Amino acid sequence: xxxxxxxxxxxxxxxxxxxxxxxxxxxxxxxxxxxxxxxxxxxxxxxxxxxxxxxxxxxxxxxxxxxxxxxxxxxxxxxxxxxxxxxxxxxxxxxxxxxxxxxxxxxxxxxxxxxxxxxxxxxxxxxxxxxxxxxxxxxxxxxxxxxxxxxxxxxxxxxxxxxxxxxxxxxxxxxxxxxxxxxxxxxxxxxxxxxxxxxxxxxxxxxxxxxxxxxxxxxxxxxxxxxxxxxxxxxxxxxxxxxxxxxxxxxxxxxxxxxxxxxxxxxxxxxxxxxxxxxxxxxxxxxxxxxxxxxxxxxxxxxxxxxxxxxxxxxxxxxxxxxxxxxxxxxxxxxxxxxxxxxxxxxxxxxxxxxxxxxxxxxxxxxxxxxxxxxxxxxxxxxxxxxxxxxxxxxxxxxxxxxxxxxxxxxxxxxxxxxxxxxxxxxxxxxxxxxxxxxxxxxxxxxxxxxxxxxxxxxxxxxxxxxxxxxxxxxxxxxxxxxxxxxxxxxxxxxxxxxxxxxx
Length: 504
Prior knowledge:
- With 504 residues, the chain is mainly beta.
- It is 8% helix and 38% strand.
- The chain folds into 3 domains: 56-179, Cupredoxins -  blue copper proteins (Immunoglobulin-like), CATH 2.60.40.420; 186-206 and 216-332, Sandwich (Immunoglobulin-like); 376-499, Immunoglobulin-like, CATH 2.60.40.
- The chain has 4 helices and 32 strands.
- The strands form 7 sheets. A 6-stranded mixed beta sheet has the order 11-10-13-18-15-16, with no helix packed on it. The protein has a 6-stranded mixed beta sheet with strand order 22-21-24-29-26-27, with no helix packed on it. A 5-stranded mixed beta sheet has the order 12-20-19-14-17, with no helix packed on it.
- It starts with a helix and ends in a 5-residue tail after the last strand.
- Residues 65-178, 215-306, 382-494 form the Plastocyanin-like domain.
């Protein structure tokens, strides 16, 4: 009897083993991520599309190629959203839903990234990370709640070094529900650089790029690559004057869509910065003359026209191949303009900025005090080098994307990032899906920290920033000189509880 029971048990065990083997052979693991057993979820599952009882503002944007006149002498083939450079300006009220239907009529894939917005990961517009690129002839709908008022912009994140250069960008304003400001006028100014004398020069084959000529202002590459500088897609005398009556105030929303630093010069006692990167700045009634705007940054400026004759906002940055005298924005009191009577600004030609992206404290901070014991401490070494078969590359911690070490976080973590530029070019570093607090520069703590989503790190500089990991997803942290990002200067804030199905 014992022998019979033993034989039955052996047979049963063999059957179980055989059945398990057959299941293994027939199972399909190609669509299964091994670490799903650790509780990770698809980033698509984080998206809540229930927008009941909310107002919806809807736009249709078509990506298309047009011939665009930068001025009376120069026409270029541009890629646009809705046929203009910049693309159609978008506006939505705080708390409402923004719905944008993208139709791609180009012969290359495109996306839309909503620069600076805190939004669901799958709406972020990064191909092969948060979505598949929108192929020629296809459509995609972006839909999310516009929670944070301020100045933003949108642009393609597909091959962005080229596509943003060719004009695929536009402005986005989220209007505050209750605003204390009562400006008679509001204007949006988008600054950019263009290469109009043929195909732009590649950063990988510029003469002297690794030599001492790059030890100046960190702009050696952009000065060689671009020859024309524009405001709202126009240059020189084609720049449209702004009409502001004598004694009136106007809100200027200025966006740097290019890859070079711009410095705007105003007459004395005319301009005051009120926000950077959609974060209100501390009001000290401080009037400024020269304001620096790094690539990707947005700055809100309140100006008061104290003159009866025309005057200019001048871009006094060193523009390299371009004609600096043509980067001027006329301010007039009415449409009858006599530019023979232009107000002569006597405040000097000081090119040094009074205000930049870290020099004015933010009104509302993420952290009242600098966190003492961050959960994640990440050192980001920004550098450049040469790679066999690739030429010049731009590195984070001696690696190029996708091999750069990610910033691994768990939801709720307090994250410290120390950014040091050990290279010779400027790197405006932009974090998607979050805002961070800049607490120190070159080991000197700020008395009045700033809240940003982009910080320009110049050669030799070190910044310490903090943010809270409170928006699950897979988020880029990259240089917004997209020529540098295209050559490797990208990493990812990787939430350990989620994964992306779009990663190749």
